């Protein structure tokens, strides 16, 4: 009777340990997933910022080049400047 009781206790402890190991593995998986999601989001935001800055700089350079092409100088005086 005592042997059967202890065998049942051992079985219960083994099942509890397996459940805890499964929960731990699940927690590790969830943490890894959260880290990957965070890094992907951060990378996406960085890409958007980079594209925005580059397009702004290209617009500024284009406007500068366009405005310089319309200016004519005669005797160091700007003729077409308003």
Question: Secondary-structure map with pairings?
Answer:
Layout: H1 2-69, E1 73-74, E2 77-78
Antiparallel strand pairs: 1-2
**Oligomeric state, counting identical vs distinct chains:** single chain
> Which stretches are low in confidence, meaning pLDDT under 50 for 5 or more residues running?
none
Order of helices and strands: HEE
Structural class: mainly alpha
Largest sheet features: 2 strands, antiparallel
Distance between the termini: 107 Å
Shape: rod-shaped
Strand order of the largest sheet: 1-2
Strand content: under 5%
Number of strand elements: 2
**How confident overall, as mean pLDDT?**
82
Q: How many alpha or pi helices?
A: 1
Question: How many discrete structural domains?
Answer: 1
Alpha carbon gyration radius: 35 Å
Helical residue percent? over 70%
Give the tags.
83% helix; mainly alpha; 82 residues; single chain; two-stranded antiparallel ribbon; rod-shaped; 5% strand
Tell me about this structure:
- The protein has 82 residues and is mainly α.
- It has one domain.
- The protein contains one helix and two strands.
- The chain has one helix at residues 2-69, and strands at residues 73-74, 77-78.
- The protein has a two-stranded antiparallel sheet with strand order 1-2.
- The longest helix is centred in the middle third of the chain and has 68 residues, at 2-69.
- The protein is rod-shaped.
- The mean pLDDT is 82.
């Amino acid at each position: 009777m005592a042997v059967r009781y202890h065998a049942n206790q051992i079985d219960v402890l083994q099942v509890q340990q397996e459940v805890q190991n499964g929960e731990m593995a699940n927690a590790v998986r969830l943490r890894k997933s959260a880290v990957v999601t965070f890094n992907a989001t951060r990378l996406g935001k960085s890409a958007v910022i980079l594209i925005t800055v580059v397009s702004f700089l290209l617009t500024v350079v284009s406007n500068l080049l366009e405005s310089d092409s319309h200016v004519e100088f005669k005797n160091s005086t700007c003729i077409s400047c308003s």
